[in-house]
Amino acid sequence: MSDYWRNKFEGRTEGGHRYRSEQWFKKSVQEHLFHIGEQANRQNVLVDIGCGAAELTVYYAPFFKKIYGFDFSSSMLQAAQKRVDSFNIDNIELIQGDACDFAEKIKTADIIISTQVVQFLSYEQLGRHLDESLKILNPKGSIFIFWIIDPKTEWLWDIGYLSDNKIGLPQLILRLLFRQKQIISRKLQRKPGTTELGYSHAKEKIKAICSSKNLEVEFSNALYLEYRYNASIKRKA
Ligand SMILES: C[S@@+](CC[C@H](N)C(=O)[O-])C[C@H]1O[C@@H](n2cnc3c(N)ncnc32)[C@H](O)[C@@H]1O
């Protein structure tokens, strides 16, 4: 079952952003840097888990001493290396690794981020990702999980209710029924996640997982994505 997402991303060379423009990538990183705040500085090491093709990673480079980009997909990492080279960046190192098993490959991190990645982790795997992160995270370091899919709004997005176009009630009902059919057939086929976008994660469950690991978490809405939110996580004082 866990190979499902690995297979999905093997051969892919882009992260599947809503817009594929450099402006969008830059804006997204600016949103994330806002949350990282003063911890984005040239003394700190950033780890980008599930960095994909480094579409965003390259824009963090000027703000950190060193960046490690991890991804389990070799095709994504090849695309990432090409992009890093084309930007002439020398402080990004790309490493093949799993979000639940990467700590042995680096010594310490000040900031650990992931963007559109935990949607490919179950709650149990998310817990393991946090355990792994804590092995290398500096005592005052932070974990930022960006763009988590919110189960409260994901379905509204999926049926088109949150789109800019007006959609009538009958069409919304039809789309809702179609979605339910898709979800059931996905379950019968034993595919992970709610849809091909992956799992959605409830804030209260993430809070409970963090609390069980003596971590505190703060949530914020994603700036540009209506059905997603961010989690800023650090050790309890
Ligand atoms: C939707 S893409 C996002 C890429 C990048 N973070 C971005 O925003 O441009 C998800 C990435 O996470 C990677 N990924 C998914 N699950 C992973 C896991 N368990 N371990 C490592 N990488 C993973 C995929 O290979 C893919 O490159």
Characterize the structure shown.
- It is globular and about 55 Å long.
- Strand 6 (215-221) and strand 7 form a beta hairpin.
- It has eight helices and seven strands.
- Helix content is 38%, strand content 22%.
- It is α/β, with parallel strands linked by helices and 237 residues long.
- The protein folds into two domains: 3-150 and 201-235, Rossmann fold (3-Layer(aba) Sandwich); 154-188.
- The N and C termini lie far apart (38 Å).
- It has helices spanning 3-9, 22-36, 57-60, 74-86, 123-136, 151-158, 169-188, 203-212, and strands spanning 45-49, 66-71, 92-96, 109-115, 137-149, 215-221, 228-235.
- S-adenosylmethionine binds next to helix 1.
CATH fold call of the largest domain:
Rossmann fold
Q: What spatial form do the alpha-carbon principal axes imply?
A: globular
Ends distance: 38 Å
Number of discrete helical segments: 8
- Helices and strands, in order, run as HHEHEHEEHEHHHEE
The name of the CATH superfamily of the largest domain reads Vaccinia Virus protein VP39
Spatial order of the strands in the main sheet? 3-2-1-4-5-7-6
The hetero molecules present are: S-adenosylmethionine
Q: Give the proportion of residues in helices.
A: 25-40%
Structural class: alpha/beta
Number of domains: 2
- CATH structural class of the largest domain: Alpha Beta
Find the count of extended strands (DSSP E, 2+ residues).
Answer: 7
Largest beta-sheet characterization: 7 strands, mixed
Query: What percent strand?
Result: 15-25%
**Rg, Cα atoms, Å:** 18 Å
Low-confidence residue ranges: none
Q: In CATH terms, what is the architecture of the largest domain? A: 3-Layer(aba) Sandwich
What's the rounded overall pLDDT mean?
A: 96
